[in-house]
Write a structure and sequence with these properties.
The complex is a heterodimer of chains A (811) and B (246). Chain A is of the alpha+beta class. Chain A contains 22 helices and 34 strands. The model of chain A has no long low-confidence stretch (mean pLDDT 96). Helices cover 28% and strands 13% of the residues of chain B. Classes of the chains: A alpha+beta (811), B alpha+beta (246). Bound molecules: FE2/S2 (inorganic) cluster (2 copies).
Chain lengths: 811, 246
């Protein structure tokens, strides 16, 4: 019977957050600390031809300047910490100045003169693909793979930048909502027989769509502080991940990972923008080394807009064929991604969403990612999947309507189950119960009852929507590490980062559960490398719950094995004759014959070897090896790599139901009801699950109705660098009550039954809201994300200005 | 005086980029290996470095070069408005503040914001700076009981006032304020960066309206942005702190 999994608890960092005592990177000071600030590009595209910093360097208190010359070279489209010859977006850092006070550093920045040559720029991918269109880089506008992508787990792939142009006819076709015939793509896959699929279709729906990128806006910017002592770098950073930073950051600092102490107790949001070490970490660490002083590099809010990453946008086209029984027989999908200045786009993930949400019998995907002179793009909460969910939902509604089927019934017929597939490779999933989620959601939301109500009420009109969100939600093969101390307590060492999802804590409960230790007798050890932390996944891709309940489980199993072996050695018999309970290991036949965990830990230290971490399995990662070495001799060590067998992707899936009231006079919408049901296996931590659902819903509202990049197309200047203009939803933009639930059917490939759910919470809400907006307006498909108030008003006024031509990055 | 450009030496080796899924992508060096010649032809007069020694840092190069032409920089300043008036923020003056019921004497220039004084002079780092421009509420403190953005208040203007920061909201016996306890019970913070500001706004709200509805609480706290979207958890926390849910 479960003792920890499925029960509420307070993660240990929560009290520090409500008292303000917990420390973020910028809260740390150090004796002799100096301050660096960045000088950034005012141009969207140009060439730096001269820098004159003499006046700045003469200023009292200025300690030095750090430029691209001080760092290893980075070729485009890598995102360099500091630009060298070319600048490619407004706000791109060019150099850093350090001074004894931050005011002096900032004043020094103002004294530096930079001369640029202007270069042509582009902020709209389709403009760049147009014959004669500008390229974001001198080398071209798109990244083309030069090697086949390797199997999963082989990250490095060859690629080069090329100049790709489409025939004008293809551009015109896409803008007009037709297939862009003759267009060149860089990704292309298909399964089944597309023509046969369309031939079988009773209804074919064909629509263009555009989604607009927008920044992550983590509330804590990526300010870092670093200092060096005895050849070691102590680095205070703001990251989603902990151990997953070690190797990359050490490489940036040109040191052995053993000489890096990465300190990151709490992180003020990341949402995909801080999964691994970000380029600007190289400045803090290396500049501190050069000056031989602790150095803080502050990133301001405005700079966080520029360099804090953003979602990739899409311009695309979809053709969906549906059989008379409602089954999707064919989908043809084209996605042009806005890669900003660095991103490779997430079109493939968008296509993956389509496969999971509708399980098409036949499908083709073609995609290309085009660089623009806008902010660097990277993973943002369900990258590809969630924006696709938002634009696809009203299109799917249109198809359902065309065959005369209820919108939920349409999704139900096409829903993925445990025998279903995901992605272009049609890979398996570990389990999926979307039909169950739809049924539960319909009941909780009152879909049928609400559908029966009147729609119109004066100028206000009600709309109902349904949506599906999906993201792969789990990884395998990382390490777990636990220690039973001579105090009898269980110390669970976690290399998982703390980005505010509390998955670091939830996953530790698996070890407590396996070893049957009350939570008050457990301590999570984390937050800095020198706390001896194991190799862990990066906290992205909703993976942590699945990935690290497994690692903590296997580490606990190793500890249990050792407890039984020690008991058998000391008390006679075979290890199998023993069991655990009440923080003891004891003979099954004679429970009084046993050792407490504290006694067993003391014996482990005496016995040494594998029992106390002097020896460890050879398949664990070097990061974990170092951690075990650091702990050796301090207790009974449980350490193991997750070798739990199994295959397939653990999916995180969510269905959302939304009811809105839209004022036709003002275009303003109010969310009356939002209900979400998750298919994420067993819910590990109910309270936290609820909060994840609510937070994701807020993000969904932002994606579907508010947030977008706005650039001035004349000058390439961003017009919404602040929070206020970028419009993340506030208290007043979202519903004050979210109803939620979970199917709660355990995943067979996780010992706790859990899978992740972080990202799909946004996709489902965005899709359900987009579906509801369309429903309120008689099925009008805007084919945009976001669909903002001005777009709604323009549509109601019969003006298609704001949604025509697949405009992106602008009004 | 045409000189050679050392920028061009810097982008020659293979490196690594990340795609939008954060998968690593290896990017080989640019294929165009005669970029020097290209640039020599096109922009000869602009070449800036008299050295091809890769060991030279641009700092040395910078020191040796004079340029004319319009300066164009962007530093996204946080101190500049102040500095424009009086050098490095003006003369510091010793002032007396009342912070969390304690008298604190501190040297502060007239242009410094309260958020900076709290964080960097008094080491009260619980007050967060999310935007430094009055957009997020992470820096919310109470001034004579009224929530204010500390990033948008000059310290010299609060000399005669009672300032309460997150460090000062605990009860006198050291236990947590009801709002703090309720936020813990609701597991309300996500990343926690906005949380001190949310606590301050909730404390002020309950002092004025001990039993707000959820909608009233949302209105009262709407100056506190939460990028994690933890709004409903905070509202539940307010209801719990006011005894409306248990
Ligand atoms: S930091 Fe003061 S309002 Fe954002
Ligand atoms: S909890 Fe992260 S910003 Fe509010």
């Amino acid at each position: 019977m479960s003792t920890h999994i499925g029960f509420d608890f307070t993660p240990p960092d929560v009290p520090g957050k409500v008292t303000g005592e917990i420390k973020y990177a910028e809260d740390y000071k150090r004796e002799g600390m100096v301050f660096a600030r960045l000088l950034t590009s005012p141009l969207p595209s140009g060439r730096v031809v001269g820098i004159d910093a003499r006046e700045a360097l003469r200023m009292d208190g200025v300690l030095g300047i750090f430029t691209a010359d001080d760092l290893p070279p980075v070729a485009p489209p890598g995102n360099p910490a500091l630009a060298s010859e070319y600048v490619s977006f407004v706000g791109q850092p060019i150099l850093a100045v350090a001074a004894v006070t931050e005011e002096i550093a900032e004043s020094a920045i103002e004294k530096i003169r930079v001369d640029f040559e202007r270069r042509p720029f582009v902020v709209d991918p389709l403009e760049s693909l147009t014959p004669g269109g500008a390229n974001a880089y001198p080398e071209g506008n798109t990244l083309v793979r030069t090697e086949e992508e390797g199997p999963e787990g082989t990250p490095i792939r060859g690629a080069e930048i090329r100049d790709v142009k489409w025939p004008q006819s293809a551009i015109d076709a896409l803008r007009a909502g037709k297939e862009p015939k003759g267009a060149e793509f860089t990704t292309d896959w298909s399964f089944g027989d597309l023509d046969a699929g369309f031939a079988e279709a009773a209804v074919i729906v064909e629509e263009p769509f555009v989604t607009i990128g927008y920044p992550h806006h983590s509330l804590e910017s990526r300010t870092c502080m670093a200092y060096w002592e005895n050849g070691k770098c102590y680095f205070h950073g703001s990251s989603q991940s902990q151990s997953a930073n070690d190797n990359g950051l050490a490489r940036m600092l040109d040191i052995d990972p053993a000489n890096l102490v990465f300190i990151n107790e709490a992180t003020g949001g990341g949402f995909g923008s801080k999964i691994g070490p970000y380029p600007y970490m190289a400045i803090s660490g290396n500049f501190a080394k050069r000056l031989n002083r602790p150095l803080q590099l502050r990133i301001t809010r405005e700079q966080e807009f520029y360099i804090g990453s953003a979602r990739s946008g899409m311009q695309g086209w979809i053709k969906m064929g549906v059989k008379a029984n409602g089954k999707v027989s064919a989908i043809d999908l084209v996605v042009v991604n806005d890669g900003g200045m660095t991103g490779a786009g997430s079109g493939n993930s968008s296509a993956q969403h389509v496969t999971v949400a509708y399980q098409p019998e036949n499908m083709r995907f073609r995609g290309i990612s085009v660089y623009t002179n806008t902010t660097p793009r990277g993973a943002q909460r369900g990258p590809g999947q969630n924006e696709m969910a938002a634009v696809l939902a009203p299109i799917a509604d249109k198809a359902a309507k065309a065959i005369g089927m209820d919108r939920v019934a349409f999704r139900r017929i096409n829903a993925i189950d445990s025998n279903g597939f995901q992605g272009g490779g049609q890979g398996p999933v570990t389990s999926a119960f979307v039909r169950e989620a739809l049924d539960q959601g319909m009941r909780t939301f009152g879909w049928e009852e609400k559908n029966a109500l009147a729609k119109q009420n004066g100028s206000k009109v009600r709309g109902l929507g349904v949506g599906i969100g999906y993201h792969g939600a789990g990884g395998r093969g990382y390490d777990g590490l636990v220690r039973i101390g001579t105090d009898g307590k269980l110390y669970i060492h976690s290399g998982v980062g703390n980005l505010g999802t509390y998955s670091y804590a939830g996953t530790c409960r698996a070890a407590a559960e396996a070893l049957q230790v009350p939570w008050e007798r457990c301590e999570i050890v984390r937050g800095r490398t020198d706390n001896h932390l194991p190799h862990s996944s990066g906290q992205g891709g909703s993976n942590t719950i699945f990935t690290h309940t497994r690692t903590n489980w296997v580490a606990a199993q190793d500890a249990i094995r050792k407890l039984k072996e020690i008991a058998a050695q000391d008390l006679g018999g075979e290890p199998e004759d023993y069991m655990i309970g009440d923080e003891r290991v004891f003979a099954t036949a004679e429970p009084s014959r046993g050792l407490s965990y504290a006694q067993a830990a003391a014996r482990a230290i005496e016995l040494g070897g594998k029992f106390s971490g002097e020896e460890y399995p050879d398949d664990i990662n070097p990061i974990t090896q170092r951690a075990v070495q650091g702990l050796a001799g301090s207790g009974l060590i449980g350490v193991a790599k997750d070798n739990i067998p199994g295959e397939g992707q653990p999916p995180g899936i969510l269905v959302g139901f939304c009811e809105i009231e839209l004022d036709k006079d003002t275009g303003k919408l109010e969310i009356l009801d939002y209900t979400a049901i998750a298919d994420c296996g067993t819910v590990v931590h109910p309270k936290n699950f609820e909060n994840a659902m609510r937070g994701g819903a807020v993000w969904g509202v932002g994606l579907a109705a508010f947030e977008r990049h706005v650039y001035d197309p004349q000058n390439g200047l961003p017009a919404n660098t602040g929070l206020y203009q970028s419009k993340p939803p506030t208290y007043l933009d979202v519903n004050v009550e979210t109803k939620m639930g979970a199917v709660n059917i355990p995943d067979p490939q996780n010992p706790t039954g859990g899978r992740g759910i972080g990202e799909p919470t946004q996709g489902a809400a965005a899709a359900a809201l987009a579906s509801a907006i369309s429903d309120a307006l008689d099925g009008h498909v805007f084919n945009t994300a976001p669909t903002t108030t001005d777009m709604i008003i323009n549509h109601l006024a019969g003006n298609d200005y704001s949604t025509k031509y697949l405009k992106t990055n602008t009004f | 005086m045409p000189m050679r450009c050392n920028f061009l030496h810097l982008i020659i080796s293979s490196t690594v980029a990340y795609d939008a899924n954060n998968a690593r992508v290896r990017v080989p060096p640019p294929r165009n290996t005669d970029r020097h010649a290209f640039h020599n032809k096109k922009t000869e007069q602009c070449f800036v470095n008299d050295s091809v020694n890769l060991q030279l840092t641009r700092r040395r190069f910078i020191k040796g070069v004079i340029f004319s032409g319009a300066a164009a920089t962007s530093g996204a300043g946080i101190y500049l408005a102040a500095n424009a008036q009086s050098g490095n923020g003006g003369m510091e003056r010793l002032i007396t503040l009342t912070i969390n019921g304690r008298t604190r004497r501190v040297d502060v220039p007239p242009t410094e914001t309260l958020a900076n004084t709290l964080r960097y002079r008094l080491n009260l780092t619980g007050t967060k700076i999310g935007c430094n421009r009055g957009e997020c509420g992470a820096c919310t403190v109470l001034i004579d009981g009224v929530p204010n953005y500390a990033c948008s208040v000059l310290t010299h203007n609060v000399k005669t006032k009672q300032v309460t920061s997150i460090e000062g909201v605990k009860n006198e016996d050291g236990t947590l304020h009801a709002v703090q306890q309720a936020f813990i019970a609701e597991n309300a913070p996500q990343c926690g960066f906005c949380t001190p500001g949310q606590v301050m706004s909730a404390v002020a709200l309950l002092a004025n309206n001990p039993r707000p509805t959820k909608a009233e609480a949302a209105q009262a706290m709407s100056g506190n942005l939460c990028r994690c979207g933890a709004y409903e958890h905070y509202l539940n926390g307010v209801l719990r702190a006011s005894g409306q849910i248990a």
